[in-house]
Design goal:
Length: 293
């Protein structure tokens, strides 16, 4: 497709546009990057509106899960949100960590940072800040955060392993993350894999589920757990832009699956703990040689 730097520039330019788009367009498209579907109103996003701390002005409908719902944030925690956008997950996290905690949002799209800061000022939050930076090399010191969250962002980064390694660096010993993102089972058609619009749309930049979980284990995390998983279906009126009728039929009847997964993991060194999740949604995410199987 393109080099890593070219892909980053594509994402940066597209998300600068998305920051100013209507929320309905983002929800009815693939992360705001593709044309809106007339068949499906909401393709990837989950409903935040019932979560404490939710701010409608900060919700751009760009996520694929509810990581802050599962993140086990405690009062006084320092929380970092990767790819913080207009601040949606930061403000939910701030409700959990309270006035005694701190929330840091990191984004490399300047219009998003500006939008998030305006939203924080409106809410009067003095313990929520937004930093411009690359999540492959966060502008944060080592062992700084108790909790890291992220919502549908790692798939937009060319070097996922570097992001996961940097998450490990930034978390305190015993700290943990809860991250929602898009993964694949099986291979996408070439026309989807190579399309820049679908990369910005959180689809073609996704990697295989086993590889994603493998990177987390290799970084040194323990208690790697899938807290929630749901299939993502691309509507025909969007899919038809990239595939002919035969290609669409083969894709939909094949073995390829696109999924949103919310993954929890801990950095060793602190007091052992178990994720507090709904048992009906919990699946142990083991890979061969990880020691958990």
């Amino acid at each position: 497709m393109s080099t890593s730097e070219e892909l980053k520039q594509i994402v940066k330019e597209k998300y600068a546009e998305i920051a100013l788009q209507e929320v309905g367009l983002n929800a009815a498209s693939c992360c705001g990057a593709t044309d809106a579907s007339k068949e499906v109103y909401n393709i990837m996003t989950d409903d935040y509106s019932e979560l404490d701390g939710y701010s409608p002005d900060a919700d751009l409908a760009l996520g694929c899960g509810l990581p802050t719902q599962f993140a086990q944030i405690n009062k006084g925690d320092t929380v970092i949100d990767l790819g913080s956008g207009a601040g949606n997950d930061c403000f939910v996290a701030r409700h959990e960590t309270g006035e005694s905690g701190k929330v840091i949002g990191i984004d490399f799209t300047e219009p998003m940072i500006e939008k998030a800061r305006i939203n924080a000022d409106k809410l009067g939050f003095n313990n929520v800040e937004f930093r411009y930076g690359d999540i492959e090399n966060m502008p944060v010191s080592d062992s700084h955060a108790d909790v890291i969250v992220s919502n549908c962002v790692l798939n937009l980064v060319p070097d996922k392993k570097s992001v996961i390694d940097d998450i490990f660096r930034v978390l305190k010993p015993g700290g943990h993350f809860s991250i929602s993102d898009i993964v694949l089972v099986g291979d996408l058609p070439t026309t989807l894999q190579q399309d820049a619009e679908m990369y910005a749309g959180c689809v073609s930049g996704a990697i295989q589920k086993d590889d994603y979980l493998g990177f987390i284990h290799e970084a040194g995390f323990r208690h790697v757990t899938i807290q929630k998983e749901k299939p993502i279906v691309i509507p025909d009126d969007i899919l038809s832009k990239y595939l002919d009728r035969k290609g669409m039929e083969e894709f939909k009847s094949g073995t390829t699956g696109i999924f949103s997964v919310t993954v929890y993991a801990e950095k060793p060194g602190g007091k052992p703990k178990k994720p507090k999740v709904r048992l009906s949604e919990l699946q142990e995410a083991c890979t061969p040689g990880s020691g958990c199987c």
